[in-house]
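Standup notes, structure subgroup. Blocker cleared on the flavin mononucleotide input:
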Amino acid sequence: MYTLFVTVRTPHREAGELLRREGSPDRARFPVLATAYPRIASFRTARGVASYLDALGWPLPADDEILRAEGSPLAQPLEIDLGGSGRRLGNRFAAQPMEGWDGESDGRPSELTRRRWLRMATSGAKLLWGCEAIAVLSEGRANPNQLLVNESTAADLAALRLEMIEAHRQRFGTADDLAIGLQLTHSGRFCHPHDKARLEPRIVYHHPILDARCPPAVELEPVSDCDIGAIVQAFASAARLTARMGFDFVDLKHCHGYLAHEFLSAHQRPGPYGGSFENRTRFLRELISAVRVSAPAISIGVRLSVYDSVPFARDPATGRGVPVDMSGPYHWGFGVDPARPTEPDLSEAKRLLTLLRGLGVRLVNVTAGSPYYSAHLQRPALFPPCDSYLPPEDPLVGVARLQVAARELKRAAPDMTIVSSGWSYFQDYLPHFAQTMVRSGWADGTGLGRVMLSYPELPADVLEHGRLDRKRLCRTFSDCTNGPRNGLVSGCYPLDPFYRERPEAARLAALKLDWSKR
Ligand SMILES: Cc1cc2nc3c(=O)[nH]c(=O)nc-3n(C[C@H](O)[C@H](O)[C@H](O)COP(=O)(O)O)c2cc1C
Ligand code: SF4
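Run returned:
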């Protein structure tokens, strides 16, 4: 029934040929059709997906039917620790942080930010983890339109929070069971603070592969031990403002290759922030203690890339992602087996959870890899972004790997609240897997990313009606990534009519036509 692989040339040329042959009216919409993994919509049942996964060696449990709130584990309340006081959240759905590249240039939320955050607030999810990465320093912005936390943005962010709470209350009757955090970040190696096309990296150490991908890094001195103190203080001030604005928690983002995550893999950095586990986690420990001093009442969460891999690159012959060939062990990863650098090793992530527990942090969001060099680990997709590679594995394997990691960490730290990621690719069967995995204690919360852009009301539809609007399910076309990678705002261009009608949609379509000819 399934073909596991076809040989392809370059993804975009192959896509172009397929489109020409099939005469698709959508030729501009799909940059990559060259893949032979079964589409989720081709499975008739959740059990079919589960059997397929089983055959691939990734057994995951799934319910046969979507359950409405009355019988659903997803409707069970979730007790979380917010700064010493407990909070009972109304259900198990979480909205993951989703950056839009669309804030005002001074870091305040724009109308597009507002629309996205309000859609998350009325999605039905009771834990809003983010709602997107917000820079603590201007120089640490991932793009010139990334939101910033500072004295001049605080009033707008606080007003938006109130609007979200009110919108949630109007839609669901109460907001007492809702928690909203802010995700604080410094983009480190991937900073573009002034120009979307100009990298201005701040690196923790020289990386043998990633430096070459962001050329200024080769010449740069890694961030000095003295500079680190200023960055820690910037996180602490941002946390103080976040508390003043009334948000429930801050996420000290440690994932996806950004600055804080890079500290965790600084095996080769000399001095107090590199080498041993203790040194590589020093930045995190300093952040937590600085936040405790400046904002004692705010709760802390950590979004963590719990495993990683040696960077992947596109094989020019096939278009598929392949791990970059390193001679010798790989000593630049966190959560990677150095001898087999595409294999996750969760031992350090478990150790980190023990450390966090000891520091009073109970809220952890499990993610993996980086969108820049191991996208298939982080956001499994059938149609990868324009500058990425064809999936090196069935995207379902990427999803399963994330869920298994969440289960392992939950087992290792049962008293911590674990939110799992990578759910959008389950598509039609997302609730079937989420129900059973929450019921079986694989994770406490089901964190939704891309589908929050295409179909934010999914949690409410599941719990209130026991059904999905299949036409709105994210099919992992990656346009929400293609947009920003080409200087445009992020949004679900294929499925959200609001973005389909924006001028950026035409620009993106033209770009994709261009890629398909390459
Ligand atoms: C357009 C886009 C923006 C994202 N922005 C963020 C972000 O700001 N912070 C973050 O931690 N993750 C971010 N992510 C990752 C998502 O939160 C999520 O982990 C990922 O998309 C996998 O989940 P999904 O399969 O439900 O999409 C982003 C992903 C996409 C596609
Ligand atoms: S949210 Fe929309 S644009 Fe993003 S991957 Fe899904 S379908 Fe594509």
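Discussed briefly. The two ends are 32 Å apart (CA to CA).
Next: hand off to the docking folks.
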